[in-house]
Amino acid sequence: SQQGEEDPQALSIQEGENATMNCSYKTSINNLQWYRQNSGRGLVHLILIRSNEREKHSGRLRVTLDTSKKSSSLLITASRAADTASYFCATDRGTYKYIFGTGTRLKVLA
Amino acid sequence: GAVVSQHPSWVICKSGTSVKIECRSLDFQATTMFWYRQFPKQSLMLMATSNEGSKATYEQGVEKDKFLINHASLTLSTLTVTSAHPEDSSFYICSARKTGSGYSNQPQHFGDGTRLSIL
Questions:
Q1: Which residue from A74, B77, B91, B119 has the highest number of Cβ atoms inside 10 Å of its Cβ?
Q2: Higher per-residue confidence, B54 vs B94
């Protein structure tokens, strides 16, 4: 399977804490993206990082990319209850067909 | 901008019926749309790539005759689950990418999904 792997599969933290989730993939990529999915809903795009970028920020989100290790991480700082959701990474090899990771279910406790 | 509307959001029907799901890009043109299937607490699996004006490209293991895809315009793709059976029950999600040059590093935009339950 070409599917990426994410860890942890599930993460439970207290409000205000930081949440870190990791994504590993198998082939060379054009870019990597992170999405959030609330229960029973579609995906919301969070951030895109290109293969020639190493780090990117957007608000409370920080994404890193290590192409030599074929891995990426998503850090959510000062988490809120509203951040409770599933988070997926998706890789694009330039064919516009995304390969999604297995996802991390984040629960932020108030 | 970049809103994708998916309809219906929820459908329950009897085994043997066919169900059509629509995916519309509301404020942009999309030459290419994608259809995914998602089982509970699992990731998204790409079913097919829908191309405007041409045949869809199906992923390995996806039955073309079972999941009919039509992409008749730059803003609409439809997925029809034919002769649906309980094992077809799932969450189906579409996405679309903007058409044109300069969009090679742009995200896909997702609909809100359709929960299909076959009795």
A1: B77
A2: B94
Tell me what pLDDT residue A95 has. Answer: 73
The mean pLDDT value for B4-26 works out to 96
Q: To the nearest whole angstrom, how far is the Cα of A101 from the nearest Cα of chain B?
A: 7
- What are the residue ranges of helices labelled H in B1-119? none
The HSE-up count of residue B13 (CA atoms within 13 Å, CB side) is 19
Give the count of beta carbons closer than 10 Å to the beta carbon of residue A94. Answer: 12
> Would you state the pLDDT for residue B99?
75
Which stretches of chain A sit within 8 Å of chain B by CB? 3, 30-31, 33, 35, 40-45, 48, 50, 88, 94, 96-103, 105
- A45 and B46 within 8 Å at the Cβ level: the answer is no
Whether pLDDT at B62 is above 80:
yes
What is the per-residue pLDDT for A63?
98
- For residue A17, give the DSSP letter: S
Measured in whole angstroms, the distance separating CA A74 from the mean position of its chain's CA atoms is 5
